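Hi all, long-time lurker, first post. I run a small reading group and we've been trying to get comfortable going from sequence to structure in the token notation. Rather than ask abstract questions, I figured I'd post a concrete chain and ask someone more experienced to write out its structure so we can walk through it together at our next meeting. Sequence below, copied exactly:
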Amino acid sequence: MKPHIVATLSEARSALDALLSNPQALAAIDAAGDALVTAYQHGKRVFSCGNGGSMCDAMHFAEELSGRYRNDRRALPASSISDPSHISCVGNDYGYEAIFSRYLEAHAGAGDVLLAISTSGSSKNVLAAVKAAKEMGVVVVALTGRPGSVIGQLADIDVCTPGGQYADRVQELHIKVIHILIESVERALFPQNYA
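-- Answer (accepted) --
Happy to help. Here is the structure in token form:
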């Protein structure tokens, strides 16, 4: 067997163990779940954004809320900012940095929640979305991978999951956090499904 297989899995386990032993990160995950629940309890919406693999995570997060996670329940209003026509239009007319912020300007309102995903914590278009969201009274939950990042510092809640040298370990932790957030929402709003 090639040695990188075991080495990769061991590295992933170490990253997860580091997250489990980080009380600040665990508290941020808990606070992020509460923010989502509060938004839904007040009839608000949830948005998500990111680039590349983080966009895929943003899409996954939204579809699990509007579709189905573990059990049948009513659909929850959640949208990832990933419409190709919107992205190409805004990118062409205003620049790539505006693709997420422009969408929020059109659709978001005070009390909504934005899940802003950036492994580096410095993606310019995600940063622009965070700034726009803050101006609109949207609650910002950042999902980052570097402590003290510019996006994390601007967010209302920064869930920072340092996973090591490369973004793939960070993304592996991000998807775990995303699933915990969805479960937190379901447990609060649909407790009968977890009885």
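A couple of things your group might point at:
The longest strand covers residues 113-118.
Strands lie at 46-49, 78-80, 113-118, 139-144, 157-160.
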